[in-house]
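User: Structure with zinc ion, tokens only please.
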Amino acid sequence: MSDVNAILEHVDANIDASLGRLFDLLRIPSISTDPAYRDDCRKAGQWLVDDLNGMGFEASLRDTPGHPMVVAHYAGPEGSPHVLFYGHYDVQPADPLEKWNTPPFEPQLVDGEDGIKRIYARGANDDKGQLMTFIEASRAWINETGGLPFSVTVLCEGEEESGSPSLDPFLEANREELSRAVALVCDTGMWDPDTPAISTRLRGLAHEEVTIIGPRIDLHSGFYGGAAHNPIHVLTSILAEMRDADGHITIPGFYDGVPELPEATAAQWQGAQF
Ligand SMILES: [Zn+2]
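Assistant:
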């Protein structure tokens, strides 16, 4: 426990340097969806590699068909658990630019009216802030105790905001190197400004392409309206039938293999405010 207190004091004493590093990363406009920022994405990845190498990690930038991956390893004590921190260095586009009070890639530390300081910059809360929280915690731990209490792998991609097309193939190709670790996704939020949270469940998404074939030509509504199926009505009725009144998905087999939520968790979610 004394270790933890010393580490927390170390964090407080070095908060300005930590913010300085986060702001350096935030200044890189690593917008993955826009090819004009391709070099900036690489620069953000390289920035992380350099920072992690400087902390004693073995870090490298790995090319993919899209933006590169950052992979870094730090060995903990023999036999200790292995944790993988996943995050992403790419950000959403910043438009509409006129909606910003300050330039999106010039981070600002602002005192809120509620007394809470806030960082304004594109990517500050998705995901550079969260990612650097894990990295800064590791740095403080290493600086204070000379190492980490468990083995850590850091995996950062640069395509999370564009659907992660390279992530699955990369994980598959590097299965040996990246498996056998408990993954912590550093891409979630706090419960509220005073309450850190460890999210244990996230929803996924699925997408399908549906083709509905309708009349070859425009049909006169006076003659055919209501009699001939309009593809937009077919589509809306398909979509409407996919969920029941309680929000359950009605597609047969959709919930196969999905465990029930524990009672307490379900109750917490129902009480949560968003
Ligand atoms: Zn994110």
